[in-house]
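Re: weekly structure request thread

Next one in the queue (122 aa):
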Amino acid sequence: MGSPEGELSVLLTDDADIADLNKQYLDREGATNVIAFPMAEGEFAEISPDLLGDVVISMDTAAREAEMGETTIENRFKELLIHGILHLFGYDHETNEADAQQMENKSEELLEAVRSVELSIR
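Done, posted below.
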């Protein structure tokens, strides 16, 4: 995705903590599954250009979504991590349908790449 030296942090948390972050930084109520905080945006982005940002995942929500979607927590975690990373690269599914479809396509492409690597390791 054009950032071989890119760095990111991942925080695995619970619904209470992600709800606090959601309210504080996005002015949204309640827990969500993943929040991304891109560092390539804003007035200080040039200070550390290889720092992509932070991805925060609620494992409580991920577990519920895995159960509802009849998948494993591991698979749901991978989906959410990729989703958050795509946000760090500027993908957005909330602006319009075309952007949402572009993000979905890239997400599927990356999930398939992860599955291929996992199969080759086994």
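DSSP finds four helices and three strands in the chain. Helices lie at 15-26, 59-68, 73-88, 97-121.
Next request, please.
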